Amino acid sequence: MPPDSMRGLASILNTPPEPVPRVHPGATPIRVLLAEDDRELRLLLATALRRDGYEVLEAHDAKHLLELMGEALVSGNGGPVDVVVSDIRMPGASGLDLLAGLRRDDWTTPVVLITAFGDPETHAEAYRLGADAVLDKPLDVDDLRLVVQTLVSMRG
Question: What's residue 9's pLDDT?
Answer without folding.
Answer: 36
